[in-house]
Predict the structure.
Amino acid sequence: MWRLLRADRVSKDFQKAEGGIVEVLREVSFQVERGSLFTLLGPTGCGKSTILNIVAGFEQSTSGQILYDDTPITTPGKDRAVIFQDVSNALFPWLNARENVEFGLKIAGLDRADRSQRSEHYLRLVGLSEDHGKFPFELSGGMKQRVQIARALANDPDVLLADEPFAALDAITKKHIQVEFRRIWQETAKTILYITHDIMEALLLGTHLAVMTAGPRAGIKKIFKLDLKEPRSHANPDFVEIYSRVEALIDEEVRRMREQ
Amino acid sequence: MIVWSRARILVSSIGIILLWWLGSHTIFNPKLVPPPIVVAISFWKMIATGEIWVHIGVSLRRVLIGYLLGIVTAVPIGVAMGRSKIVENLLGPPLQFMRNITPLAIIPFAVNAFTVGEASKYFIIWYGSVITIILNTATGVSLTPQIRIRAAQCLGASPRDIFFRIVMPSAWPFILTGLRVALGFCFMGVVAAEMVAAENGIGFLIMQSRNMLLPEQMFIGIFMLGLVGLITDRLFHVSIRRLMRRYMIMIEQD
């Protein structure tokens, strides 16, 4: 196993509207190995989405860099597909599920037969074979996120960047889709950087878990390698132990943030 | 889409005709405000002689030419405004300033600039449509959700792809709404246009009815203006729903 993504002392400042500067990220470093599912866990507002945006190439770091296969990232590219949290705007509303999945393929110039073969495959993978002709407004939140996953995978990226993709879903849908997401990751063997503020989710999905400190000037507090026995649930003593350790770290950060 | 009840249309139509008839015989002078029956007879004569179709045809042609000129000039300007802060700063204030100036107010300018021929009429109708189309297009183009653009970027879209496959489709509902409103404005504009040295057209029919002592013609003109405007608006609406349905879904469903 070797690293695919490396964040090397990444800092990010934002210009405040009323003047002055907020230091959002302060020297964030971590490495993501090829084929791993690296979860980045932190309290709300700690800048974890900013890290994802820099990795995606949507935003630039103020100092430090993200290396992808040892090349610094500066622009968005199809090697890094993003699954967005925003359920209502991430899909293209004038395209049906199949056309959404084929968007990147069409741009890449694939012919119709190749496109439909791939979109069928990935829609089946996310369990939406029957709904390929539906438009986004006809799909539930969970279904929309499945289309997003299929759309990202159909383009065959090296890395999936997931920005709290299930945070806006109801608890029952969320639980189902998390299990399926893990299955999809296992089947496709993609490298995934997964942002979340949900400890349970991070522990269910990840091969690695990085806990962030509270912002501003957020950084990485601790990185765990999750070699957990199955099942990953509260029935497993390993799981319970690591859950409480992570929870304690997060609580510490939330308390620190309140005291500021 | 609004679904109208036929029975209610009938009731309101009869009501209006009744009020008109009463008004004509009580508070107004029936020689100047003729009752419905007189207008109906005169209308029938104009249909029989074919005169009415000439007026309608001429006005429709003027509206269409002015409107099409409006579309081809205003949509690109609106797109430029929506895409560029500089263009928006340059054109936004003058357009907001002109927005309240009715086509009626620019008649003298149109005549001085384009003489009394057809060109001045096209200009007046064009003027009536462009501001609405520009502003709607600019709004639609500038409101493209950033996340849609980002989603396309990480699927391999080039700036050109982003413009044609994301920005324009996102703006269509706004542009089409602007085009529909502007079409209505063109029918307002055609009356203004035909106030100057016109020899035919629905606007001419209305404006000249007093001078020619044919007051029933103003009612015929007003009625035709409303009817033709309504029919073209419906046609526009229906064809958009047919042809551009996938883009209109966005605003109709949310």
